[in-house]
Design brief:
Elements (H helix, E strand, L loop, with lengths): L14 H7 L7 H9 L8 H11 L2 H6 L3
């Protein structure tokens, strides 16, 4: 079975396209994080990865992290 990718979503539901069409305030946290991450990893698309990160770390903790 082929893994779900963002290309499987209609264009208007993809995070980058939503950002262009709407203000950032209208996007979910995982969509904004997905835009920053740019890509997922094998077996997980970028939205799934963003959701996983947000479940594991609070937004406050993420903002304090250093590279």
């Amino acid at each position: 079975m082929k893994p779900f990718t963002l290309r499987d979503l209609p264009k208007e539901e993809r995070p980058r396209e939503k950002l262009i069409q709407k203000d950032p305030q209208n996007l979910k946290d995982e969509e904004l994080l997905a835009i920053l991450l740019k890509t997922g990893r094998e077996g997980k698309n970028v939205l799934e990865l963003a959701k996983q990160i947000l479940r594991k770390y609070s937004k406050k903790r993420l903002l304090k992290m250093k590279y």
